[in-house]
């Protein structure tokens, strides 16, 4: 291939990110599918389970702050490696647990390790893609979150039936080390990579304002400096209000289908697969939509906002899940909401890479992710109280109805707050 015809190695990089994110979500999804089995073995209440979820979220939040800075300092290759090793070891360690407290401890370790995935992946996309392709690239790798959730409802019940719950954690946790081999062999930043030619390198850095994303500066950007910037709070609020909804889908959706529609979680089932497959389509489609609007001439920030408003409206119908009389009606409503969430997620992540220079991007993503995890700590606490109350009253479905109503409102509220905080979004120059 001549130097005039650019290579496309950046898409191979996206494939690596896709599989890392798939494994990330596979490992965190296992406990939700094993919840009925573990509830019986360890006599968990809904509040016990919510506290285990909160332990994951608390350390995920703290880890996001830590890993954001670590990845900005160590670089994406080494930073991603450290993150994956920590979370894979923690995932396998679930098999050794003998108590509810022990589950809280290993979930905390898993949260700390998994927190490195998105700060690293978003920075990799910023390093390898011009702005007009970032939303699509982010949507593709972010769809791995849903593929992990699709694989889990098939894989985990099968392992549980053939072996036991301990092996479900061991096998899924070990997959990360397979990915690590490919990461070490095939990944490097563009300026050091031997598989890309000058044409692709120039294309990656073709943004007219690319000098605002200068990687050569050695000046350290502190969290305090970032927190006084209004654009940081836009990202913070968007993640705080919407991330907890996705956590709810991950950790409580299997239990919802089981308790409301008597779905047998010991067998592979198509219902959860459909929900998370729809979310995968939403992730890629959401990234494509804003990229398409930009190619049609719409300014970058307006394209992101327009797409996100559309996705916020698409979540609202989930409140009607309270009227579902069979599982397929609920699956349709939740699938639409899940697809809209992942489309929203692809764009809010890309907005951060549009606004902030690369040298501070992982730190900003870490701050926003921390905000989402704080919301993810508070929301499970509320969910546990609501479900225990209505379970005691013999009507747990009413509890889920309240929760779905909260889900329906969260995205539109987030969009409105983000819009009025920064009606005209501008790039940040540090």
TrEMBL record:
This is MFS transporter. InterPro entries: MFS, MFS_dom, MFS_Na/Anion_cotransporter, MFS_trans_sf, Sugar_P_transporter. Its main location: membrane. It is a multi-pass membrane protein. GO terms for cellular component: membrane. The chain crosses the membrane at residues 52-71, 165-186, 233-253, 273-294, 306-324, 361-387, 399-421. One of its GO terms (molecular function) is hexuronate transmembrane transporter activity. Keywords: Membrane, Transmembrane, Transmembrane helix. Residues 13-426 form the Major facilitator superfamily (MFS) profile domain. It is found in: Membrane. The keyword Membrane applies.
């Amino acid at each position: 291939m001549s130097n005039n015809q650019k290579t496309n190695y950046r898409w191979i990089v996206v494939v690596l990110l896709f599989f890392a994110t798939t494994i990330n979500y596979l490992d965190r999804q296992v406990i939700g599918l094993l919840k009925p089995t573990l509830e019986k073995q360890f006599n968990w209440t809904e509040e016990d389970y919510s506290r285990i979820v909160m332990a994951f979220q608390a350390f995920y939040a703290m880890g996001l702050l830590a890993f954001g800075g670590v990845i900005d300092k160590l670089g994406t290759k080494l930073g991603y490696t450290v993150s994956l090793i920590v979370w894979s070891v923690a995932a396998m360690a679930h098999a050794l647990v003998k108590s509810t407290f022990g589950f809280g401890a290993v979930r905390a370790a898993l949260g700390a390790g998994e927190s490195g995935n998105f700060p690293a992946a978003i920075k990799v996309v910023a390093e390898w893609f011009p702005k007009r392709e970032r939303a699509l690239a982010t949507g593709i790798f972010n769809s791995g979150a849903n593929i992990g959730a699709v694989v889990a409802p098939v894989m985990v019940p099968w392992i549980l039936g053939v072996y036991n719950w301990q092996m479900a954690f061991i096998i899924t946790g070990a997959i990360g080390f397979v990915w690590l081999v490919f990461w070490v062999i095939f990944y490097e930043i563009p300026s050091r990579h031997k598989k890309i030619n000058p044409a692709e390198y120039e294309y990656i850095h073709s943004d007219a304002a690319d000098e605002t994303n200068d990687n050569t500066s050695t000046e350290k950007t502190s969290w305090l400096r970032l927190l006084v910037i209004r654009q940081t709070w836009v990202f913070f609020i968007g993640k705080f209000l919407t991330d907890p909804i996705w956590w709810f889908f991950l950790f409580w959706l299997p239990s919802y289908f089981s308790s409301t529609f008597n779905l047998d979680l010991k067998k592979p089932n198509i219902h959860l697969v459909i929900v998370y497959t729809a979310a995968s389509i939403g992730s890629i489609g959401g990234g494509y939509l804003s990229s398409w609007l930009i190619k049609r001439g719409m300014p970058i920030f307006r394209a992101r906002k327009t797409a996100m408003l559309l996705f916020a409206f698409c979540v609202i119908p989930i409140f009607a899940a309270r009227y579902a009389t069979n599982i397929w009606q609920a699956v349709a409503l939740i699938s639409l909401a899940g697809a809209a969430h992942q489309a929203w997620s692809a764009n809010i992540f890309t907005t951060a890479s549009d606004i902030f220079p690369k040298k501070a991007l992982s730190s900003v993503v870490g701050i926003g992710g921390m905000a989402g995890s704080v919301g993810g700590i508070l929301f499970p606490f509320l969910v546990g109280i609501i479900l225990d109350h209505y379970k005691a009253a013999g009507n747990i479905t009413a509890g889920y109805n309240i929760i779905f109503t909260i889900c329906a409102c969260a995205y539109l509220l987030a969009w409105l707050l983000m819009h009025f905080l920064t009606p005209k979004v501008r790039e940040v120059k540090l």
